[in-house]
Amino acid sequence: MDADIGKSGTGPWDGVLFYTALALLLGHEMDAVAEAEWRMLPLLNLLDDATARAVFIAAHVPLVALLLGLVGHRRAAVRLWSRAAVDAFLVIHAGLHWALSADPLYTFHAPLSEALIFGGALLGLAHLAVLARRVPLARKGV
Fold it and tell me: To bridge 107 with a disulfide, which of 11, 30, 35, 111 should be the other Cys (CB 3.0-4.6 Å)?
């Protein structure tokens, strides 16, 4: 999975937690298409559904390509900080979903939707905890 799994005392959990959290995020993005999430997003909510759907999906192509490039980057520092940023995003993203859950346009109430959103946040938080232990070790040359 990762060339650096097991280094700096992180063991296999580094990759397992991160890639599972990332998979939950990508699963949520598929669910977001099914749930027409663009109806809640500024600017996209001004467009007709067909156009907004197309823009929403098309915008995810370069975003996902960039994300995959960063979290799999050959430089360990880029990988580390990119993954930490994804973890933080997952937590913030879940907070936004929770805050918007009473909105009439919010439709992510199904168990699968909630598992993707909040499971991603939980794993992102767990991965951040693993990384927090890793960074001080990396600074000491371990």
Answer: 35
Exposed (0-12), middle (13-18) or buried (19+): which is 37, by Cβ within 10 Å?
buried
- Collect all residues with Cβ–Cβ distance below 8 Å to 17 and sequence separation of at least 6: 123, 126, 127, 130
- What end-to-end distance do the CA atoms of the chain give, in Å? 21
pLDDT digits (tens, 9 = 90+) for 27-53: 999 999 999 999 999 999 999 999 999
Residues 44 and 60: their CA atoms lie apart, in Å, by 13
Q: What is the pLDDT of residues 78-123, one digit of tens each?
A: 999 999 999 999 999 999 999 999 999 999 999 999 999 999 999 9
Distance, C-alpha 136 to centroid of its chain:
24
**Cα–Cα distance, 114 to 117 (Å, whole number):** 5
Distance of CA 1 to the CA centre of its chain: 18
pTM here is 0.85
Phi, psi of 108 (to 5 degrees): -90, 50
